[in-house]
Each structure stands twice: as C-alpha cells, then as structure tokens.
Amino acid sequence: MGRILVVDDEEGIRRILQQVLEYEGHEVRTAASGGEAFAIYSEFRPELTFLDVKMARMDGLEVLDRLRAEDPGAVVVMISGHGTIETAVEATRRGAFDFLEKPLDTDRLLLTIRNALQQRGLVEENARLRGEVESRYEIVGNSFAIRALLDRIEKVGPTDARVLITGENGTGKELVARAVHRLSSRAEMRFVEVNCAAIPAELIESELFGHMKGSFTGAHTDRAGKFEQADQGTLFLDEIGDMSLAAQAKVLRALQEGVVTRVGGERPVRVDVRVIAATNKDLEKEIAAGRFREDLFFRLNVVPIHVPPLRERREDIPMLVRHFVEKAVQEQRLPPRTFRDDALDRLSRMEWPGNVRELRNTVERLLILARGNEITAAEVERLVAGGHAAPAVAGDLLGATTFADFKERAERAFILSKLREHDWNVSETARAIDMPRSNLYKKIERYNLMRED
C-alpha cells in the first residue's frame, strides 16, 4: 500500500477519494489548494498524487510543474471534470503519469493506482541502482537533492552546452564535471582540468593558451595550453571566480570565436572544446563588485548546476560513510570496521562545514584510531566531536523534537563539556558549575556519561 495525496478544491471529491483509497489500505492526505499541497508534499512525500486541473488561484498544471521541479520522480495523475484531449496531452507533456475524467470510475481508478505505484517503485529502484553505479565516481546518495542533481547531469551531459557548477568547497563540483563529461559524445577524448585559483595571475594565460619559445623568461620551448590539450574534449575551469580580468577577456574571446593564440605567438589556433566551469563564489556579486565579467558569466552559465552542501542531504550520510569505508579498506588497506547505527546517527547530525570531503577524512580517521571492530557514537564523540565541538553540539541540539528534549540535550552537552574541561574531576567540576557534587553524580548516571579514555 502507498502514500497518496489528493489535491482538489471540491470537498466532496476529496472526501470520496479519501474514503475509497483508505478502504483499499492506502495512507491518504488531502489538500484544497496548490499552496496547501506544497506544504503537505514536502513533509508527507507521497508515492502518488491525484491533482485536479481546474482550481482557484493556481491551476493544476502549474502545481504539476512545481511538484515535478521539487521531486523529479513525482508520480502525478491529473483529474478533471472538463477534460479535453488538448489538456490531457499538455499534462502528459509536463510529466503527468495519467489523466482521468470526472466522475471517476472506481475500476479505472484502482487500476491507475496500481500501475502508478508500480511506476514509482521502478523509479525509486532505478534511482537506487543509479546511486550505486555513480558511487564508483563518488556521487553517492539517494536523497531528493542528489536525484535531482543526477537528473540534471543526465539531461545536459549528452549535449555540448556549457555548464556552470556552483557549490561550497568540498561538495564535489569536480566529480559533477567528470560525470557530465562521461555522458557526453566527447567521453573518449581528454578531460583537462585547470585550477584557476592555484595558478599565479602572471602564468594563467600561458597555462590556458600556451606560449612560444622565448616569449618570456623560462619559456624554453613552444608549449600548447590547456585549450589546445582539450581539443575535441572537455576543459574544466575550476574556481573560475578567481581568474584575473585580463585572463577572463581572453577566455571570452576563445569561447566566442573558437580560437586561441599562444603567448608570444601570432597564429591563431582553432579549437573545439566544451567548457565546464565551477566556482564557490557568488558570481553575480563578483560582477557587481567589478571582479568578474558579466559577458563571460552569460557565456558560461548556459546550464547552471548547483551541488548541495552535505547539511542539506543528511539522509545520504550513512550511504556515504559505507562508501568511504569500502574505498579506504580497498585503496589504503585500513582495517575494516562497522559503523553502528548510533554512530551513523551522530555523524548525520553534525554540521560538516567541509562537506563530503570533510566526512571522508573523518571516516578515515575513525577507521585508523577507533579501538574496536565496531565504531560507536562514543568513538565519534571521542575522536571527532572534540574537534567539532560547536557544530556537533549545534547539530545535536537542533535534532531535538520537543522543548523538554532540547533542554535535556543542552544540559548533557554542558555537563560533558565541563567534565572534559576539568579532566573528569567531579569535585572540581561541581565547584566550577556551582552544583552539589551529589547532584552532579546523579546527572552523570542519568545521562550515562563516561570518560572516553
């Protein structure tokens, strides 16, 4: 049985559908408008949505577009009392699974539900398998954020469109660029990477466009630049926001005309290169500050791809941990260890300002330093949270479900921090926090606090 959302501005339709569907064993929620549907959808995550075409304020086709944008795998059946072939075709074009006319025929309704839920199951299974395949390239996860990311990569990959990848440090922008390249017709050709932030400004032009012998001190031979090296393939300009304005002007010309000229050279060289750029900066702010060319931004930003930070896809952390364990055991010969559920839960509630890169380093640290074959939440506290104090505590407190739970978590974190500060000397800790020693002992027992070493 599945989770089904019914969206219709007619109360009678909502009530009848809910009764029929609940009788069949489904879990049902209803919404009287598009706005109400969005609020319910994000929390309920239905496997199937029945959506009325004609509604006040926001019609069903607009709601369909927004639902599909939020969840590319959404299975939506449109219903209407004024159905036309044109409307049905348009709904299907926009991604609807089926179109039913009112009054709804019960047999047709139940058949559609069965087929739609099977479709949803196939979509989710394909997403799971795709996540496993992509794990070889470290784009790991099955969250909605990652599924939407992979969906966009699959759409833009086979084209020759330029792509601008944005996201914080450590989110995996290079991995996205390589995934786009692998799906392109250029996959058998070279993928050439340039880290624009790591190359001094006076050398970036030579690095990108090459140079002729004697054009500057140290230019002992003719040398092809990255554009020429990537001919017929893909050029990945990482940290494009750190490139000098002079270099930006030459990159713009190369994109406009498809030719480059080596430093000290006179003969232009024609190149066929797909350019993918990435940055952790807000380029529109950089444009406003005069540090980035607006015309270059428009040339690069044909298809934008945003890579979400780890804190926005915490549900992927257990899968990422298992992936990193497997890779560390295979590639670095680290001892195989199992992460217990409480350890995974603790890691999932941390903030991870360094994103996936930081999580990978943390997993390797735990594999090296943990004491037993199983890694527990206590080991995470001992080996990770100490260096993560503020983010870890913040993540833990924000995981509270009630105010009473929040107070308990805050008290536990405070007492544990003070015990560590005073090297677990209970008498000194009690004096420092102005608490009777007997009360402190009771708190230690209540929260099951133990010295890590």
Question: What attributes does this structure have?
Answer:
single chain, flat, 453 residues, Rossmann fold, alpha/beta, 20 helices, five-stranded parallel β-sheet, Helicase, Ruva Protein, domain 3, 50% helix
**Number of beta-strand segments:** 16
Low-confidence stretches at least 5 residues in length (pLDDT < 50)? 387-392
Q: Specify the CATH architecture of the largest domain.
A: 3-Layer(aba) Sandwich
Strand arrangement, largest sheet? 2-1-3-4-5
By helix and strand content, what is the structural category? alpha/beta
The overall pLDDT average reads 87
**Main sheet overview:** 5 strands, parallel
Question: How many domains in all?
Answer: 4
What's the CATH topology label of the largest domain?
Rossmann fold
Shape: flat
Portion in beta strands: 5-15%
Instruction: Name the CATH superfamily classification of the largest domain.
Output: P-loop containing nucleotide triphosphate hydrolases
Radius of gyration: 28 Å
CATH class categorisation of the largest domain: Alpha Beta
* Number of separate helices: 20
Helix content: 40-55%
Amino- and carboxy-terminal Cα gap: 49 Å
